[in-house]
Specification:
The complex is a heterodimer of chains A (478) and B (509). Chain A contains 19 helices and ten strands. By secondary structure, chain A is an alpha/beta fold. Chain A folds into three domains: 1-46; 49-366, Alpha-Beta Barrel (TIM Barrel), CATH 3.20.20.100; 388-468, no CATH class. In chain A, the strands form two sheets. In chain A, strands 3-4-5-6-7-8-9-10 form an eight-stranded parallel β-barrel, surrounded by five helices. In chain A, strands 1-2 form a two-stranded antiparallel sheet. In chain A, α9 links the parallel β7 and β8. Chain A is globular, with a radius of gyration of 23 Å. In chain B, 45% of the residues lie in helices and 10% in strands. In chain B, β2 (239-240) and β3 (245-246) form a beta hairpin. The chains are: A alpha/beta (478), B mainly alpha (509). The A-B interface holds A 82, 84-88, 120, 377, 380-385, 387, 415, 418-419, 422-423, 425-426, 429-432, 435-442, 458, 461, 468-470 and B 150, 154, 159, 162-163, 323, 326, 328-334, 394-395, 398-400, 437, 443-447, 450-451, 489, 491.
């Protein structure tokens, strides 16, 4: 089956190549139209992305043409979500990944971003399999040195992780190599030094770039701003830097969490140094697609263009900055892939009134009390058995659905209370709920969004307790 | 007509009480809680003089109507007796009253109760024997159905149904319930109401009273032709057509004999006692051929009867294990918990203390069925076997909940109000330094302090053996009400580092 799928993918790739060469002979076109018919009948491929032109490309320092849409491989389509959490290797839907990757390539997406840590360590292998049938010069692979845990800090363990990436991805050269998530950790400077400096790994990677096994070297940044500044100031010639950028984080990252830094500053620093930016979290793990159910925000976006989706606005925002090389989006559904391809084929730059409108939407969203959790699972497993992302997901879901009602006199209190409590037990088993958080804080340094997880657990627990007792959260009265 | 009324009433009470044990919402409790309160033994234990007087009066008027309609174990037996006679071949016959056994069992029941050996005495209590069967055997099946609906509701995005816990709360009690289910069903299937007229203490008391009942089934000697139709229908075996007498102390007033007599010789009526109180004649031996036929028939049915509990039993552990299967690899394994050793068991608020609770509780499991927090479970200790006690591995005694106190029919757990709920001290928490996470140099915690509903735990500075400066809990014993919130949220495994032990006498302040 895999073989068949791959051959099929190759076929369609060739077709695209030929179409690009518009001057090809009529005979060639005739044969291709037959192949085109075959592809057209093929189940999910029946509907094509509605593209008005071709993909927008940006140029890297080394002169590579990079598609503005980058395929993020952190969340992958699974056959069974629970099986994935159990670490089963059969759980990822490889066939679907193959077909999504093939379709992405066909429409000009050429940047694929993975890590040894994504999808419980399966992402690199799955991507390697999906890309194998295509010519190596048609795609760019980005992976990372994800030596987060202390056991991976040694030089040997880090090099082993690095070498393993080649094996899993089945490649000889990594196009884009990143120091993964610098600035994270409760003592970010210590973590940075232990992971990349004291063990000589940064020097090692620079050597590898010299030798040509790495083409571009950069880092991805979350968290402590001192590390960002330090990394830029240390005299390394970074080919690119990956930052979190979207219309909320541009000016409001600090309002969401005082420990965060606005994307405006990060991007500005990179521009000053002429370093291309790669954008992560342009849609905030889907929260800028659902707008957290904030009807007013959705109405504002729809008023500006009734035919655009919120996710399209978010992607256009991330892409319109000229210094952006590519915008990463995790696309587990074909519909997301198609919509994103359409958004960037080609990119329609934002005008001033549109930017103003998005800033107003951002201000509105900041006032909403959802947690900035993107369910990345970096905090897991909690040693006390809590299911942290599921607790936050349930909480955010209830806030979006307006089932977070603390006022006992509210007309919807009864139904909202039931939805919150019954839904809570459905989403999270009782012994994994917020009340079992001991506040040990081990999860805190792992959160890229810098959520104070124990504090939020106490808040959610207090709210649940007030619901159970049917007492007002603030006053403690019934 | 009388029989139809009896069946209708029996069906009403039986389904009502069964629902009371099965319901996962509070609906049944509010609508039908009284059905448990009018049970004879619970009413006696609750000292509900009015109810006992009414039941006595009812018996003095119509005989043991209680046994054929109100008592759930009686109706339960009628169902199996009916299954046993359905094919028309099975016939009852008169048997002599086993009065020594009856009064002996009653005396033993009272004596054991007075001596405090409740676990043995309670085995005979009819209403609670049925309660144990319903809670242990029927409830898991009902809950499995409810959970299926909850699953469907979840798929449909509805919150109409929520999943409930299916688990065996205590293995010994489950075993006893299963054994009684098999025993009583078998006896009823083969011999009708033999249990009620031998071992049941309530049956013996009401039987004694019904000797003096105003209305009783009476055989008209003029009309009776000794066709034995009524005798063969009598599942209590109390009609003797030879002597043309009815032993009204064993008659459970099922009315099966009334109205079917072709001569109209048996009627429910008032008659002077002398005519019916003649010494019973010799028991007529059933022919050996008839006995053989009965034996043959019953073996076939025995297979079915034995298979039924086996099926129920097999379904149970599977349901209980479903929870475990949800555990995912991305999550840390939840280590199993063990109950701590408590000096005294913790009894729920309203129980007043150990003595009131153990003397009044009939171990019917109604509170266990009603407890929404998984706290109450039958005891496994020898003396208090089957009587509920509290454990805090699934939840704790929540401040807003008073369901056990609202539902208990015997006064073992008495009615309390909202303010009493949080002011009754049922026990107190004990901190175990050797198990506490921070005290042994582990992670910082303080979860018990955060969750104590009335602030009786405070955190104090402490130096762990490894020299780490930590915060550990200190319990204000006088403030602590013993709700178990601290024990529930304590991360220490397998035994919580803070546990509740019960008071002998509950305190209020």
């Amino acid at each position: 089956m895999d073989k068949q799928q791959n051959q099929h993918g190759l076929h369609r790739w060739n077709r695209r190549e030929f179409i690009k060469m518009a001057g090809a002979g009529a005979a060639a076109l005739a044969t291709l139209s037959i192949a085109g018919c075959d592809a057209g009948k093929d189940g999910p491929h029946a509907a094509r992305p509605s593209v008005s032109g071709s993909m927008t490309y940006r140029e890297s320092k080394k002169g590579e043409k990079v598609s503005l849409l980058g395929f993020g491989m952190m969340r992958l389509p699974t056959v069974d979500k629970r099986a994935l959490q159990r670490g089963s290797t059969a759980a990822i839907d490889q066939e679907l990944v193959n077909s999504l990757v093939a379709e992405a390539l066909e429409y000009g997406v050429n940047y694929f971003d993975t890590s040894p840590r994504y999808a419980q360590g399966q992402s690199e292998r799955v991507l390697g399999i999906a890309l194998k049938p295509f010519p190596r010069d048609k795609y760019l692979i980005a992976t990372k040195l994800s030596n987060f845990t202390e056991s991976d800090w040694s030089r040997e363990a880090s090099i082993a992780m690095y070498e393993n990436s080649f094996k899993e991805l089945q490649i000889e050269m990594i196009d884009y190599m990143l120091l993964h998530g610098i600035g994270m950790g409760d003592d970010a400077m210590k973590a940075f030094n232990s992971r990349y400096i004291d063990n000589g790994m940064l020097d090692f990677l620079l050597e590898q770039r010299e030798k040509g096994r790495i083409r571009n070297l950069g880092f991805s940044y979350h968290g402590d701003i001192r590390i960002f500044d330090h990394a830029l100031a240390m005299g390394v010639d970074w080919d690119f830097v990956q930052i979190q950028l979207n219309y909320i984080d541009w000016k409001h990252a600090k309002e969401i969490n005082t420990r965060n830094t606005n994307a405006e500053y990060l991007y500005g620093e990179l521009q000053k140094r002429n370093i291309p930016a790669i954008i992560m979290e342009p849609v905030l793990g889907g929260r800028l697609a659902s707008m957290n159910g904030n009807r007013k925000a959705i109405a504002m976006l729809k008023a500006a263009d009734p035919e655009s989706t919120p996710a399209q606005w978010a992607l256009r925002y991330a892409g319109h900055h000229k210094g952006v090389l590519t915008v990463l989006s995790g696309m587990t559904f074909r519909e997301h892939l198609r919509e994103n391809i359409a958004t960037y084929s080609p990119l329609k730059p934002l005008n001033d009134s549109e930017l103003e409108m998005l800033e107003k939407v951002a201000e509105l969203m900041v006032g909403f009390k959802t947690l900035p959790c993107n369910t990345c699972q970096y905090c897991m497993p909690c040693p006390y058995g809590l299911d942290i992302p599921s607790i936050f997901e349930h909480y955010n879901h209830c806030v979006s659905e307006e089932n977070y009602v603390a006022d006992t006199h509210d007309a919807h209190y009864g139904s909202a209370r039931r939805a919150f409590l019954v839904g809570y037990d459905r989403s999270v088993p009782k012994l994994r709920q917020a009340d079992h958080c001991t506040g040990c804080g081990r999860c805190v340094p792992h959160c890229p969004q810098r959520i104070d997880i124990p504090k939020e657990m106490v808040k959610i627990d207090r709210f649940v307790e007030s619901l159970k007792q049917q007492k007002n959260l603030e006053t403690g009265k019934a | 007509m009388l029989k139809t009324i009896r069946i209708a009433l029996a069906a009403l009470f039986f389904t009502g009480i069964t629902w009371l044990f099965l319901d996962v919402t509070e609906t049944a409790q509010y609508l039908l809680g009284w059905m448990a309160c009018i049970q004879f033994l619970p009413a006696v234990l609750a000292l509900s003089i009015g109810i006992v007087a009414l039941l006595v009066l009812l018996t003095l008027l119509f005989g043991r109507i209680y046994c054929s309609t109100i008592c759930p174990l009686g109706v339960f037996q009628d169902i199996f007796a009916w299954l046993g006679t359905r094919r028309g071949k099975k016939r009852y016959h008169f048997s002599k009253a086993r009065n020594r056994l009856r009064y002996g069992a009653l005396a033993a029941f009272v004596l054991l109760g007075v001596l405090g050996v409740h676990s043995l005495a309670l085995l005979l209590a009819p209403y609670s024997a049925y309660g144990r069967i319903a809670q242990n055997l029927f409830s898991p099946v009902y809950r499995a159905g409810n959970n299926l609906l909850a699953l469907l509701a979840e798929r449909a995005g509805s919150y109409a149904f929520s999943a409930s816990d299916i688990s065996i709360r205590s293995l010994p009690t489950f075993g006893i319930a299963l054994a009684f289910f098999a025993l009583i069903a078998f006896l009823a299937f083969r011999h009708g109401r033999i249990w009620c007229n031998t071992l049941c203490p309530v049956g013996t008391v009401l039987g004694f009273l019904s000797r003096f009942a105003w209305f009783r089934p009476v055989l008209d000697r003029e009309k009776c032709v000794r066709c034995r139709l009524c005798e063969e229908r009598c599942k209590a075996g109390c009609i003797d057509t030879q002597t043309q007498t009815v032993d009204s102390s064993r008659c459970v007033a099922c009315m099966n004999c009334i109205g079917d007599c072709p001569k109209g010789a048996i009627r429910l009526t008032h008659e002077k006692r002398e005519s019916t109180m003649k010494a019973p004649a010799e028991i007529e031996e059933s022919s050996s051929a008839e006995a053989m036929e009965q034996a043959r028939l019953s073996t076939a049915r025995r297979g079915f009867l034995l298979a039924l509990p086996a099926v129920l039993f097999a379904a149970l552990p599977a349901g209980a294990r479903a929870e475990d299967n949800r555990t995912d690899g991305g999550l840390a394994e939840l280590k199993p918990r063990r109950q701590p050793k408590r000096t005294l068991p913790v009894r729920p608020p309203g129980a007043l203390g150990q003595k009131n609770f153990t003397t009044r509780c009939t171990a019917c499991q109604l509170c266990v069925a009603a407890c929404p927090n998984g706290v109450l479970r039958p005891s496994t200790s020898a003396l208090g076997l089957m009587q509920p006690e509290m454990g805090f591995d699934r939840g704790f005694c929540r401040p807003e909940c008073r369901r056990c106190s609202d539902i208990c029919p015997t006064g073992a757990i008495q009615r309390i109000g909202d303010s009493e709920k949080s002011s009754i001290h049922i026990g107190y928490a004990i901190w175990d330094k050797a198990l506490c996470l921070p005290a042994t140099g582990g992670d910082a915690c303080g979860n018990c302090e955060r969750h104590c509903p009335n602030g009786s735990i405070s955190l104090i500075s402490f130096t762990a053996p490894n020299g780490k400066k930590v915060q550990v809990p200190a319990v204000d014993k006088e403030r602590c009400i013993g709700c178990g919130a601290c024990e529930y949220v304590c991360p220490a495994r397998p035994v919580s580092a803070i546990h509740v032990t019960g008071y002998e006498v509950h305190r209020i302040n």
